[in-house]
Design goal:
Structural class: alpha+beta
Strand content: 15-25%
Number of strands: 6
Helix content: 10-25%
Largest sheet: 6 strands, mixed
Length: about 140
């Protein structure tokens, strides 16, 4: 597990940072594609539209969830990485920011960012579903 560290205070599990249309920076949570796809399904089945833009990187077989800036300071989900972009080129526009990648859920068709508390729960549930499916083989 890798996490980015920051001096920003961590949010409690009941609080999540928000992202407004004026924000240009966001953090990126990267997970294996299989777990990410399960998490997207879980998030989209939820009562509220809780998933923001999601980037699929074919070369690395990963999914990247855009989350509000500051999330990397507290991200500790095993099997995932949260990268603090600090405004270094990752912007919400229709063109994928990385060559060899494409938007699974493009900006404009999703919320501005995925709530990190909701994403943490969905990734946990996805990991449990995958583990259960693999153990039945």
């Amino acid at each position: 597990m890798e996490t980015s560290q920051s001096n920003d205070p961590c949010m409690s599990s009941g609080t999540s940072p928000s992202m407004t249309a004026g924000d240009t920076a966001c953090d990126l949570v990267t997970v294996p594609a299989r777990q990410g796809l399960e998490a997207v399904d879980i998030l989209r089945r939820g009562a509220a539209e809780a998933v923001g833009p999601v980037l699929h990187d074919d070369g690395c077989d990963t999914l990247g969830f855009l989350v509000p800036a500051g999330t990397a300071a507290c991200w500790d989900v095993p099997g995932s990485t949260c990268t603090e972009t600090d405004g270094r080129g990752l912007r919400l526009n229709p063109e994928p920011p990385v060559e060899g990648s494409d938007w699974l859920l493009p900006p404009g068709e999703a919320d501005l960012a995925t709530d990190p508390v909701v994403l943490r729960r969905a990734l946990g549930e996805a990991a449990r579903l995958i583990e259960a499916a693999d153990s039945r083989r």
